[in-house]
Each structure stands twice: as C-alpha cells, then as structure tokens.
Specification:
CATH class: Mainly Alpha
Low-confidence stretches: 1-17
Helix content: 40-55%
Structural class: mainly alpha
Distance between the termini: 42 Å
CATH topology: Four Helix Bundle (Hemerythrin (Met), subunit A)
Radius of gyration: 16 Å
Order of helices and strands: HHHHHHHHEEH
Oligomer: single chain
Strand order of the largest sheet: 1-2
CATH superfamily: dinb family like domain
Mean pLDDT: 87
Length: 204
Amino acid sequence: MKFYPILLGCLIATATAGCYGQTSSKKSTNMLFQKIPKSEYEAAILYYSDKAIQGETVQDVLENSKLLLRQELAKIPDEKVNYQYGFGKWTVGEVLQHIISYERIMTERALIIAGVVTSDFKYQNYTQASTAIGGKSKSKAELVSEFLEVREETIKMFQQFNQAQLRKVGRLDGFKTSVRMICLCISGHQGHHFNVLKNKYRVL
C-alpha cells in the first residue's frame, strides 16, 4: 500500500499513541486471540492486545469492552475529572480523552488496512501529548458521552468488515498487524488505562 509511508512514517519518531513498539511477556487467554495465527501480527504490538477483554469474536470483544466501559466510567466521581496523581501527569479527563483519541486513530488504521479508506485521512501526525488535548476543558458527562459515541461508531464499523477484511494484514507504523488484531489493541488499550486510573489515580 503506497500511502502508508506518507500517512504513518513519522508517527514512531513523534511517539504517537499506538499498540505497537512494546512486547508482552504474558500469554493471552483471549479466545479471539487464540484463533489468530502469528502470520497476522508481530510481537511488537502485543503489549495492548494481550490485555483485551475476553471475547470469541471481534463483536464479542467490543461489546464486552463497552459493558466494562460503562461500569468503570460510572465509578469515577464527577469532581475527580481534573485530578492528577502527580506533578506533570495527565488529569483523569486527559486520560479519558487519550483513550478516545486512540480509538479514533486505530479505527481509521483498521479502515486503511481493510482497504475501505484510501484518502482523506483525519488522523495522521498524532503524538501522545496531542491525544489528550481537550480533556482538561470537558466535564465527566461530556467525556462519557463522547466515549460511548466513539465506541458505538467502532462497533458499527467492525460489523461492516467481512471475514477477509478482518484477516487482512497491513503495516502499522512499520509493524505487521491484521484488522482484527487492531480490535484487540483498542480493547486492551482501554483496559490498560483503566488499570492506571484504578492503581495510580485511585478513582475506580
């Protein structure tokens, strides 16, 4: 795919949010992951995919992740949205905004690899810092609404992929991945940051 270098080439250097560049030492028990052959991915993207919510299919993973999403967001006190656990750390709102932005970026990557989108890219030169922009100015209610809206869009998008598209493999910032592995990354990224909100921010 000739557009990958243009779209994704600079993202590693700018440390964009992604499910790649880190390996995982744990063995995933996710039922969907167990069905995916190693030919569809490289070890460098397993850090988040290994943390995906349980599910046998792509839709199972996304729907189960949505249920957990609702439960966990409901636990966060409204007044804690601007809380930071340390100097220079993101606020709770910025963490949530980061997860939302990450999901938007990765769903576009899935569309690209599936061959559905070949132009008019919205999310190109994102960095870790830029994915959190806006989180400080939004209320918890606004962030929750945006989060759930984005997740519904993600679920509908993955429903439209056929099995051949879900198995299609492409390059994600230099690393090999399939469309269905990106689904696991989205779910695992959510789980990773909710664990951070629980263990470091102590708001869950």
